From TrEMBL:
<feature type="transmembrane region" description="Helical">
    <location>
        <begin position="33"/>
        <end position="50"/>
    </location>
</feature>
<dbReference type="Pfam" id="PF00893">
    <property type="entry name" value="Multi_Drug_Res"/>
</dbReference>
<keyword id="KW-0813">Transport</keyword>
<protein>
    <submittedName>
        <fullName>Multidrug transporter</fullName>
    </submittedName>
</protein>
<dbReference type="InterPro" id="IPR045324">
    <property type="entry name" value="Small_multidrug_res"/>
</dbReference>
<keyword id="KW-1003">Cell membrane</keyword>
<keyword id="KW-0812">Transmembrane</keyword>
<keyword id="KW-1133">Transmembrane helix</keyword>
<comment type="similarity">
    <text>Belongs to the drug/metabolite transporter (DMT) superfamily. Small multidrug resistance (SMR) (TC 2.A.7.1) family.</text>
</comment>
<dbReference type="InterPro" id="IPR000390">
    <property type="entry name" value="Small_drug/metabolite_transptr"/>
</dbReference>
<keyword id="KW-0472">Membrane</keyword>
<feature type="transmembrane region" description="Helical">
    <location>
        <begin position="84"/>
        <end position="103"/>
    </location>
</feature>
<dbReference type="InterPro" id="IPR037185">
    <property type="entry name" value="EmrE-like"/>
</dbReference>
<feature type="transmembrane region" description="Helical">
    <location>
        <begin position="57"/>
        <end position="78"/>
    </location>
</feature>
Length: 106
């Protein structure tokens, strides 16, 4: 169950990271409310997952999901560059996330 909470927390982190772009400096009410709600939900679920999982693993996976998700959505939604080197490093981050899960013992 902790891993499910952690993955959802990571997805919410993607949501608030991308949501920051849509708030336009917190000047747009609806995107701001949704972004803040995603922040609270993400941190809350991370905290619940960290009750069971080692904090280094939980935090590393959470940050990794957020970073990879935000980078991929940046490419898709905002036309950020999708260079070969960028994609290779994103793939390495996915390998690190899977490695943390595989070696966590949970």
């Amino acid at each position: 169950m902790a891993w499910i909470l952690l993955v959802v927390a990571g997805l919410l982190e993607v949501g608030w990271a991308v949501g920051l772009k849509y708030t336009e400096g917190f000047t747009r009410p609806l995107p701001t409310v949704l972004t803040v709600a995603s922040m609270v939900g993400s941190i809350g679920l991370l905290g619940l997952a960290a009750r069971t999982l080692p904090i280094g693993t939980a935090y590393g996976v959470w940050v990794g999901i957020g970073a990879v998700g935000a980078a991929v959505l940046g490419i898709v939604l905002f036309k950020e560059p999708a260079t070969l080197s960028r994609l290779v490093f994103l793939a390495l981050m996915v390998v690190a996330i899977v490695g943390l899960k595989a070696t966590s013992g949970h």
